[in-house]
Amino acid sequence: MNGSEDVDDYMSMAIVEPTKPEKETSIQRQARRRREAELRARVKSKAEKKADDDAARDAALATSLDISNKGFRMMAKFGFKQGDTLGASKDARAEPINIVVKEDKGGIGLDAEKKRKFREEVEHVAKRAKAEEGEYRERMRSEREEKRKEGQLINAQKVAERLDTEVKEKGVPAEKTDQLPDRQGINCTSRRFTEPLNSTNILWRGLLRRRLEKEREGRMRYDLAQSRSRLPTYTDPDEDEDDRRALGKEEKSNVLEEELEEDDPQLEEFNALPVNERLEKLVLYLRDMHNYCFWCKYQYHDASMDGCPGVTEDEHD
Amino acid sequence: MADRRPELEDNSRVKRQKVIDGSISRMRQNGFDIDQKNDPSKNPYLAHHYSAAQDDMTNSSSGLQNFKRHKTMAKDAKAMEDGPHNPFTGNALSQQYMSILKKRRELPVHAQRDEFLQLYQKSQILVFVGETGSGKTTQIPQFVLFDDLPHLNNKMVACTQPRRVAAMSVAQRVAQEMDVNLGDEVGYSIRFEDKTSSKTILKYMTDGMLLREAMHDNDLTRYSTIILDEAHERTLATDILMGLLKEVVLRRPDLKLIIMSATLDATKFQRYFHDAPLLAVPGRTHPVEIFYTPEPERDYVEAALRTVLQIHATEPEGDILLFLTGEEEIEDACRKINLEADEMAREADAGPLKVYPLYGTLPPQQQQRIFDPAPPPRTPGGRPGRKCIVSTNIAETSLTIDGIVYVVDPGFSKQKVYNPRIRVESLLVSPISKASAQQRAGRAGRTRPGKCFRLYTEAAFKKELIEQTYPEILRSNLSSTVLELKKLGIEDLVHFDLMDPPAPETLMRALEELNYLACLDDEGDLTALGRLASEFPLDPALAVMLISSPEFFCSNEMLSLTALLSVPQLFVRPSSQRKRADEMKDLFAHPDGDHLTMLNVYHAFKSPEGQENPKQWCHDHFLSYRALTQADNVRLQLKRIMEREELQLMSTPFEDKKYYENIRRALVAGFFMQVAKRDGTGKTYVTVKDEQNVLLHPSTVLGQDSEWVIYNEFVLTTKNYIRTVTAVKPEWLLDIAPTYYDLDTFKKGDIKTALQKTVDKMRRKEAIKGGGRR
Questions:
Q1: Which residues neighbour A153 within 8 Å (Cβ) at sequence distance 6 or greater?
Q2: Which site from B309, B543, B667, B711 is most exposed, i.e. has the minimal number of CB atoms within 10 Å?
Q3: pLDDT for the residue B736
Q4: Pair type for strands A292-293 and A298-299
Q5: Which residues does B686 contact at the CB level (< 8 Å), separation at least 6?
Q6: ipTM (interface predicted TM)
Q7: Distance from the Cα of residue A56 to its chain's centroid
Q8: What is the spatial distance between Cα B49 and Cα B212, in angstroms, rounded to a whole number?
Q9: What segment(s) does the record annotate as region Disordered (chain A) (predicted)?
């Protein structure tokens, strides 16, 4: 040590920004003063006052006398130190007896009983809240799970639609084609509808139907915007074929319209199944039909599907 | 417990023996010769005195001179007691004496007189346990007299009592038993009253009185045996005496000490006194069945009343003792029980029920009524009547009422509490201890098997009640005690061997208070003022106030006021005539405060009009005759001390406009540490330094417009009250108690600001005055 510690290290010295005392504007000051005056002027209720008094008393009761007390110095003369007790015995009292003011006529044990009951109640409420919380979590979890599955289902449907369409267009091994529903593939939503909706593959018909509904809605909105004064469904008795073509009113759209209006009990039945089951059906369909594992996201070359760990999602973790 | 005791006793006896031997041999080595030094008969210089006494004895009495001190047997003493002459006076024994003697012989202690004598003779210190009713308080001192023969050595036997009333009544009883006049051979000494004479050989006294005597006679040389009775009550004075006597017995091997306790946990006393031997005499008790409530009670008073009435309706003959906490509660309960019992008698043909209150401040003749027999059946052969006594815990140990079979115990009593942190000493309703509960239950088994109804659950008894009631020393302001101990020559209070030392802060506060009162200097040594103050049997603040009163030209008035502050409540306020009582009080009211009002009362009482028929006058004016006569007596005693200490007695002429101001200033000289200042303009006051919010007690005559007040008492209830208040000026505080009102020691706040303003004002005035003079 050569006194180097005395030398201030200016480099490491933190330079404190001089904190500017917040200047109180006259309005702020006025407001503050008014607030303070109001606080002072407000007459406290009896209960508040009592609570204040009790708090002051309890605070004073909890503060022990310390070495600043004159008596302490006199006691120190005889070797008394802070924390010592008096007398010759070891187990002497260190703290004054606490003062408890009884405020009512409650019998012995009533307060304890009240406290016990209160505690029990609190515990009970806490327990119930916890149970409810658990339930809520469970519900949230399952809802989340369902949503996730729903998303997976849609994905699987898309894959199935794509693969089915590909097969239709390319031609497929014979043994598998007959299992395919007899219809034309649909690979583009905007293309003219050639096949009745209710004869498409039930597994992904829902997807298709939703898409078509969306399309129709979009078109209707478009039509509405284009038609200016007319409802798209309005048929002008004076309108001829050319007019209709010019206005974009085509027959087919009406067919689709009808198809979409129709009930589809088959689809409803399928949609009533739990999402798990629907997904499972799709996964199995993809495996059987296309050697495609939804979980591996891979189309295998043969039916043995070498390398795929299994049928369920868990097996793919 | 019972079967273990004899064994315990034997062991300790042996141990004790060793200690005694040790101490005696030590004494011898130190050059003391006990026999020569302490037996006056062996002292050649006292021979004339001794032979005269001896002659006197032979002339008048009948054979005590043949007794060898500390070598007597029970049968010798019994023969003496049988007469025909009184062994102490030589007079023929009366018929009354003989009939009492027969009853005395039936008391349980008599069966063990020899055993007692053996232990007493063998050991310097003895712990004696006898339950109430065993006869220990009246008989043991007499047993001692016949063996200790104090008259032969010009000594006395002292027997201490925690209460004044007990000391007086027991002395009265024992004087009767010994067939002597009270004040002759048997006397008593209590604060402000000494009924003893040069003949006295047995002196009943309050423990506080013995302590005061020790201040002048540190070794208590006037006594050959000291009996501390009711030691289980652990009063402040008894605890201090035990600490003191523990040292005195080492200095005085000839002094014998008996500690008497009514409860069985006497092992603590044994341990404290170096394993002193113990003798236990069983009381005459019967089994008591204890009942608990299944649920805690919502209102213990209501539950108590219900229980009493139920006992009256359903239980067989036997009196009821109900414990409640204070005068008001007791009077209220008595009224309600009376009402209900009357209705029960009318409607349900219940027997008559007589209800008596019992509490400390009840006039003695009314206290006496509790011994009235239970009322007879309304019609011959009808349902028996019974009495119900509603009492504070006086009936727990000190008073024995025969005929009690049922005890109702709500589990509360009013207990003194003191906390040095906020300097509050107050009576608070608190749960009793297990020991108290057992004692209460025991009261039911005095005459025959009884029942005790505890108005709490068994679980609450086990969990909520503390084992033993805290001894008083842990619940008291010790400034008085510290002053006494300093006077007793005990310098090191830190290591003074007390049975239950209080919290250090309690001692700290006491020393500080005494320092502010200038009774102790900064080193903790007694000052001249402190020495003088210790001469007064008063609180140091009161003593200092009295001593300094000549400086304010009003010592006569302060003498009266001190006396008035030392007695119970002056004003009587019966609940049925509150308004009338308040009107009467207003006659004496002084606008500046309660102290001055009390003084007005005293002056009116002493006026010719008041003295014409004082009892009637007090009754008419709703004043306590007892308190006023007591105050008169206290004043006389204090006046004697004043005269002895050559303190001037004087008054400011009443016409002088400073008459009352001087008195108020003199009050400040003692009570400057009990001052409160009004908080803003409201009703609340804040105590100086401790900063507690307080209200003026509703009984005050003081208007609300006094900025500064001094108070006599800080009372804790559901609200904090200051009681007995008088208005003062801040200038006086700064002037009379400059050390306490050193502004540097004050916390920032309203009080400091106000005092600072006063200081500035005083300076300005001083400057103007000074300027004017120049």
A1: A275, A278, A279, A282
A2: B309
A3: 94
A4: antiparallel
A5: B676, B677, B678, B679, B692, B693, B694, B750, B751
A6: 0.76
A7: 47
A8: 29
A9: 1-57, 125-186, 223-260
DSSP H or E run through A220: helix A202-226
Specify whether the backbone of B641 is left (phi greater than 0), alpha (psi in -120 to 50) or beta.
alpha
Q: For residue B195, which of B214, B179, B216, B171 has the smallest C-alpha distance?
A: B171
A82-135 confidence digits (pLDDT tens): 888 898 877 888 889 988 888 888 988 888 888 888 888 888 888 888 888 788
CA dist., res. B237 & res. B211, Å (int): 7
Element at A164 (helix H, strand E)? helix A110-170
Lowest mean pLDDT among B40-44, B106-110, B385-389: B40-44
Residues A122-172 have pLDDT tens digits of 888 888 888 887 888 888 888 898 898 888 888 888 888 888 888 877 765
**Would you say B412 and B430 are in contact if contact means Cβ atoms under 8 Å apart?**
yes
Residues of chain B in contact with residue A61, where contact means CB-CB under 8 angstroms, are 419, 421-422
The residues, ordered by sequence, that sit 6+ positions from B562 with a Cβ below 8 Å of its Cβ are B538, B542, B545, B546, B634, B635, B638
The residue with tokens 């041999």 is: B25
Check residue A236 and give its pLDDT: 66
Task: Write down the residue that tokens 């059987």 correspond to.
Answer: A288
Lowest mean pLDDT among A216-225, B272-281, B436-445, B480-489: A216-225
C-alpha B766, offset from chain centre? 49
CA neighbours closer than 13 Å in the CB half-sphere of residue B173: 18
Which residues in chain B have Cβ-Cβ distances shorter than 8 Å to A97?
417, 419, 470, 474-475, 503
Among candidate residues B405, B330, B414, B340, the one with its CA nearest the CA of residue B367: B330
* pLDDT, tens digit (0-9, with 9 covering 90-100), for B508-533: 999 999 999 999 999 999 999 999 99
CB atoms within 10 A of CB B8: 16
Is B552 in contact with B661 (CB distance < 8 Å)?
Answer: no
Smallest Cα distance from A42 to chain B, Å: 12
- The b-or-e profile of B685-694 (16+ CB within 10 A means b, else e) is bbbbbbbbbb
Q: Using the CB atoms, write b or e for B330-363: b if 16+ within 10 Å.
A: bbbbbebbeebbeebbeeeebbbbbbbbbbeebe
Residue of B nearest to A61 (CA): B421
User: Model-level pTM?
Assistant: 0.71
Domain ranges of chain A: 187-272
Dihedral through CA B273, CA B276, CA B279, CA B283, nearest 10? 20
Chain A residues touching B693 at Cβ < 8 A? 49, 52-53, 56-57
Give the type of residue at B671.
F
Q: List the structure tokens of B467.
A: 């084992």
Task: Determine contact, residues B679/B708, Cβ cutoff 8 Å.
Answer: no
Cα B49 from Cα B154, distance rounded (Å): 10
B205 neighbors B141 (Cβ within 8 angstroms): no
Task: Report whether pLDDT(A10) > 50.
Answer: yes
- Collapsing DSSP to helix, strand or coil, B415 comes out as strand
More confident residue, A53 or B594: B594
Model confidence pLDDT, tens digit, residues B270-311:
999 999 999 998 777 789 999 999 999 999 999 999 999 999
Give residue B297's identity as a one-letter amino acid code.
E
Both tokens of B231, joined, read 């030691």
Q: Tell me which residues of chain A, numbers 86 to 115, contact chain B at a CB-CB cutoff of 8 Å.
A: 86-89, 92-110, 112-113
pLDDT at A218: 86
Chain A partners within 8 Å of B411 (Cβ): 107-108
Residue B333 structure tokens: 């309960």
pLDDT of residue A300: 82
Tokens of A167: 């097969």
Q: How do B186-190 and B193-195 pair as beta strands?
A: antiparallel
Length of chain A: 317
Distance, CA of B370 to CA of B358 (rounded, Å): 8
Which amino acid does the sequence have at B296?
P
